[in-house]
Structures are given as structure tokens and as C-alpha cells.
Amino acid sequence: MTRPHFSLPLAGTLATLFASAASLGTGGCSQVPAPEPRGMLSEPRVSPAQRSRGVAKTTVTRRPLAARSVGVGTAENTDDDDGGDVTFEIGTPIIFAPGRMTDAESSGVGGCRAGMVSVEGRFCVDRFEGSLVEPSAGGDEVFHSPYEPVNGQSVRAVSVAGRHPQGYISGKQAKRACAASGKRLCKGPEWRQACAGPEKATWSYGSTAEPGRCNDQGKSPITLYLASVRTHDAISFRFSLPQEMPRGQDVWSWPVMNSPALNQYEGTLATTGSHAGCTNGYGVYDMVGNLHEWIDDPDGTFLGGYYQDVTQNGDGCGYRTAAHEFAYHDYSTGFRCCADLD
After folding, report:
1. 257 and 225 within one domain
2. pTM
3. Same domain for 211 and 162
4. Cα separations in angstroms, 107 against 115, 124, 131, 159, 264
5. Whether 211 and 255 share a structural domain
6. N or C: which end of the chain has fewer CB within 10 A?
7. Which structural domain range is residue 116 located in?
8. What is the pLDDT of residues 321-331, one digit of tens each?
9. For residue 42, is pLDDT > 80?
């Protein structure tokens, strides 16, 4: 990591740790530099055969669960009120014509390809924050888990409504994913113009901040993570979280900041387009809040803030973080693509 934009506190007690996490909201910062490590705290419990089919079921002992999604694709909490097991169905496959996903991405607007809209006839931008798809053994495409980094998989970017967008992604990975779909990361001026809309609004939706209109009032996942470790709750069990409380700067370590649990807590990451008022005249959604969005800057820059902070490094569309290398990623880093008009 380069150019840190704040100093991290050294917390000696649990109370200090919780206070630090709540006040900082992490800001999407970690003290662990590249190279990126391989693997995670936990691996999805999905066999290769299940992954190739795009559908799998995982059954765990009934406990109160905060998460709404697991593994490769969509999931629902089917908690049995009679005390039975909880079944999560994951990995809905996407059948597609080669190079297209007409069943998932909306039609393009203004001469743009699917999932994109035109900005003043100059370029195209994704309507929603990016998701990733990867090929299955059967030749179909399935969604890559939005809660897991890209560890060597062949993925490409799509822009779809109603999904948790991809976090845990570096700028380099996002750039490759956009290119694999014939698109590219947005340039800084393009991103800011798309965010401000034809209204040239600071907050995308308007000139005055309206907390909660976008996903900008989220809970601190680090605080929730620490609570899970302390209480050994269902999340701790499900994701094999550490048995001992992380101390000091270990709270901000790479494994913690990239834990797949973080964006699955209630009140953190929102599905794309679910904040219906977080849009502008171009018809783009969630450019303020939800996830930081990488732009095409080899030195590493992301814009727009995330679900806990849209003001620390600038207001709304003017939010800019340049504290990380392009290879960095954590739970708060996402992206969307731009493209030249076809």
C-alpha cells in the first residue's frame, strides 16, 4: 500500500478496537502490501461438479444468520422456524449466446452495448456496479461470488440489476474483467461526468446530500466481524473466523479486510439498483456509496465512496481515494466499466 491517507490507531483493548472500527469505518484501508496472497480464510463449500453445474446446496445447523448470499450466485435464507436445518441454494447458471448475456443485462441505451447507457453521445458507462461471470465446465457462465477475490479465474464484467456487486477486486483485475467484455475502466473525467449526470450534481441525485438515499449509511463490517469473533456466532462458525480476537493493526490485516463475511452482514453491501433514488438523468445507479469504484489510473485511484463513507475524501461524486496500489483490494473495492460508442 502506498500513500496512506490516515494513521491507524493501535488498539489495546476490545473497547478501543470497537470504537476504532466504528469511527473509522475502515475506509477500505489495510496495512498489508502486495503481492496479493492466494486463498482466503474460508473456501466456498462447493465441489467442482457442483460448480460446473452452477447449482449446489449447502446445509448447516440452524442458527440465526445475518448473511443473505453464499458461494457462486444467489441465495436465500430459508430458516426453518421449527428448528430444522438451513438450506442455501447457490449458483444459478446463466445460459447465454457467445459474447452476450441478453437474459441478464438490460438493452443498451443510446447506441451502447447491453447494460450500458450513453453519456452525451460521447461514451458509454455501465448502469450498475460491476459483477463478474466465469465459465463453467459445461460451457455456460455462472456468477463469480461477489464475496471472494479473483484468484486466477477467467472472469469478465457484466452490469446487472438486483445483485450484490463484486467487491474484493483490485484495479488490475477490474481492468482485465472490463476488457474481457469488450469494455474498459472509466477515465477519471468520464466517471465524474457520469456520476454528476446532466444535472451536474454533487451527489449524483442532486446538489444537496440526502443521507440514506444512496447506500451510504451502512454498518461497520469490521465491528460486526469483531463481534462475531468475540461471541463465536454463526458467522464465525460458517466462515472459520479466528478463535482469538485480532489485536492492534492485525484488525486491518489482509485476511480480515478480505474476509468473505464482511459484505454479507445485514446493513452493509446493497444489491445494485435497490436504492432507487440513487440515480440521475443518465440512468446510472449507485455511483455514490455502496462500493468504491476503480478508475483507469495505474497509480491506483477509486471514486465515489462506499457504504460507510461518502465524505471523508470529498463529497459524493467528488470523493477520491488515491492511497492504494492498483493491485490492492478489500471488501470495499468495486468497479464499473466504460466503453467507446459502438
Report:
1. yes
2. 0.73
3. yes
4. 6, 13, 17, 11, 29
5. yes
6. C
7. 1-59+93-342
8. 998 999 999 99
9. no
